[in-house]
Structures are given as structure tokens and as C-alpha cells.
Amino acid sequence: MATLPLVCPHGHTDPRWFADDEPFEDPTSLLVTPDHYVTRMLYSQGVPLEALGVRPLGGGDAAEPRDAWRTFAAHFHLFRGTPSGAWLHHVFGEVFGLTERLDEETADDSFDHISECLDRPEFRPRALLDRFRIEVITTTDSPLSDLAHHHQLASLPPETGMAGRVLPTFRPDSVVDPDHDGYADNVAALGALTGRDMHRWDDYLAALWDRRQATIALGATATDHGHPTAFTADLDRGTAQGLLDRALKGTLDAPGKEMLRGQVLTEMARMSTEDGLVMQLHPGSRRNHNREVHQRYGRDMGGDIPGPVNYVDGLKPLLDRFGNDPRFRMVLFTLDESTFSRELAPLAGHYPALFLGPPWWFLDSVEGMLRFRRAVIETTGFANTTGFIDDTRAFLSIPARHDVARRVDCRFLAELVVDHRLELDEAHEIVTDLAADRSRVVFNLARS
Ligand SMILES: [Zn+2]
């Protein structure tokens, strides 16, 4: 088990790391400042984000890396009992070989030790891909991205071992959600990039199609959609055109915005039946819930809070059209665990197009993963689920996250064996499948 490769079909690492293969700069910008799991906990206990190296949008001071590290170390005890604490312990001990517990006293030594490691060739991004046995990892890419780093990766010589290893994912939220920061400007940029008229619904859809194809050309096998809900719609072209017109003018009301997002999801599903991209839906995060933090620092600062999601009613228009289409595959995620057994497992256990992604974000913990297995497997079986998905920008925590998931799966399967609900050889087969094959199959990722 421990020697099986890691398959990472959804995540948020920066493709630049693997394209340039430059050393990571310092411990703080690698492990603290960009990790909103980390900053939100410290913020909740009164640590200003500036003290962790986060710079306000309008400019202003932020702590230097060593000072921010000292603040982080002095508060590291806050992560006791949390998955972030477990992952960071793994990173410190397994990746960097630190033996002392991180606190105020050990802050400087650990900063120096990690800094020295990062200067060494074996801690460069590509060397770590090898060390972590990452077979394939995907990034998250806007339709507005020129995908320059993925072009750079695709042109690397074969001896780098990088062919097909870092793949893009098409994530169009910034041009399909009228509530997204800068929506109208983003759509205008999409028009400029594709040479299409964004005031015409058909052209708008064609531009999205063009960018999907550009992403596919660089190896993408999936899309991802971070919508506030799982609402979908199936509208006629005229109605959709009217919604787009008002969205671009900034006059669309909240129900109209939801309708437009819902229509785009159905259009994305239609495109998936044609180009084969596996569609991932990550709904239910009330993004930027903390208005002050959002205004001061921007997105992804830890102020996203889960809300309830209705999948059964929300997805019906989309499933009415494509739920039985053998060309269509959709992976559902949730932050609302009340839907595990009531909605998600029955949906995925019936519609051929649907698969369940593993516990996500606030639920990717030991207890969250166990609750998921107990709630869904009796209805979905294992084949209607994907393998584990680390879904992180914290690159160095990826082995820890997969390790925890594999241990949880072993524990769950061991219980089934002890209860005589499974034979031991069946459990072995399942756990190997969950560790790597499931994700290869569901996400069409060829084995290297
Ligand atoms: Zn994600």
C-alpha cells in the first residue's frame, strides 16, 4: 500500500513550480501564507493575517518570512486534533526530518533547517514529485489563462520524466458566475482571447468550448465547477441570451444569476458529452462569507463557509438531459454531509453518469472520511466512487493526505472483514483499487 503511486486528479498546485523547477523560496511562503486551512485557524484566535505574511490588496506591510514563521510556530498548538496538524507533523517529520515539536523555542531552528533543505536539488518541485511517487497531478486553470506553464511542461524533453505528469483542469467559474469578482471584465477578456462576440449567447458558449479544447490539447481530462449550489437549468436560447445580457450589464438579480449559472452547468455537461471531459461539481461553499476579510485581502483567505445543498432537485434538469448518456461522467462533491446518504449515495448509486468524490475540504479528516464511507458505501458500492482526492495547494502535504485516506480505508475495510461482510482478499482488492486505480479509471488518466 505505502509503495503505490499517488494519483492526484484534482488540486491547486501551481504549474509554474513544475515548469520552472526552481527551488521553493522559504518555509513561510511554502507552508503558511498560502494555506487558508492554516491562516483561518490562526485568524480565528486573533492573529492578524499580515502577521502570517498575507499582504492586503491595497498594499501595506506584511511580516517577513522569518517573523511570520515565528508567529506560526508560537501558535502551532492550535492545530492539535485537526487534520492540518496531522499533515504538518507529517511534512515536518517525513519530508524534512525534523524531530523537535514546533513551538516558540524551536521556531528559528526549524526555519533554518527547512530553508537549507529547500536549497538542495532533492527538494526542487520535480524531485519531490518523484519522491512522493506522484504519478499524475492536475492543476486548476482559468479559461483566461494562456496555459503558458503547461505549454512549457509539454515541451520538456522525455528524460525529465514529466510527460503527461502535470495536467491542466478547465475551471470556468470566473467567466460563468456573475457574482465572481470582475465577471464582466473576465467575460470581455474571454471574448478578446477567442475572437468571439460575448454579447451573443452562442458565441459565448463557443468561446468556452474553444478554451476547453485548448486545455484538452495540453492533456486535461476534466473540468471543475465551484458553484454556490447544485442548481441546474435547461432553458431555451432566448431566455439564456436575456440572462447573459443582464449579467454583463450588471442588472441581473440574484435568482437570475442562479438561473444563468445553472444553465451554464447544463451547457458544460452537453460539451462534456462531446469532448469527453469529466465534469466535477464542488458546490456549497458560501465563498467570502467574511466580508471584511474579502474586501481587505481578496479571495481564498479562509472566509469560505459551507451551506446546505439540494442535489436531488438541483441536478434534475441536467440529469434529465445527460444522466443516462454513456459519454457523460460527473463527479459530485459536498461540504454538506447531511446529503451523503439522503441524496448523493442514492443519486450515484443509480445514474450511470454520476460518481461520488471523496470527502472534501472541511470533511477530509479521519472522522469525516469514516463518516463518508459508513454513510454511502452501502448504497453506492465502491465502483460509484472515485479514489481519494487531495484537493490542495499545499504540495508538501499531499503524501500525508493520501496516507491518512489509505489508513482510513484500511480501517473501514478491516471492520467489514471482521464482521464477515467481506473476505480478506476482497478487502485487499478494494483497497488497492481505491488507492490508485479508481481515480485513473474515473478521470481517464492513463497509467504511466
Ligand atoms: Zn479544489
Can you describe what's shown?
This protein is of the alpha/beta class and 448 residues long. The protein has 20 helices and 9 strands. Strand 8, helix 17 and strand 9 form a beta-alpha-beta unit. Helix 12 packs across helix 13, helix 18 crosses helix 19 and helix 19 runs antiparallel to helix 20. It is globular, with a radius of gyration of 22 Å. 46% of the residues are buried. Zinc ion binds next to loops.
Distance between the terminal alpha carbons, to the nearest Å? 18 Å
Task: Give a count of the beta strands, DSSP E runs of length 2 or more.
Answer: 9
Low-confidence stretches: none
What small molecules accompany the polymer chains?
zinc ion
**Radius of gyration from CA coordinates:** 22 Å
Strand order of the largest sheet: 4-5-8-9
Structural class: alpha/beta
Layout of secondary structure:
Blueprint: E1 6-8, H1 15-20, H2 27-31, H3 36-44, H4 65-74, H5 83-95, H6 107-118, H7 125-131, E2 134-138, H8 148-154, E3 166-167, H9 173-176, H10 183-194, H11 201-217, E4 222-225, H12 237-249, H13 254-275, E5 278-281, E6 285-286, H14 291-297, E7 305-306, H15 311-314, H16 316-322, E8 330-332, H17 339-348, E9 354-356, H18 366-380, H19 398-418, H20 424-442
The chain binds zinc ion (ZN).
List keywords for this structure.
3-stranded parallel β-sheet; alpha/beta; 4-stranded parallel β-sheet; binds zinc ion; 9 strands; 448 residues; 20 helices; globular; 6% strand
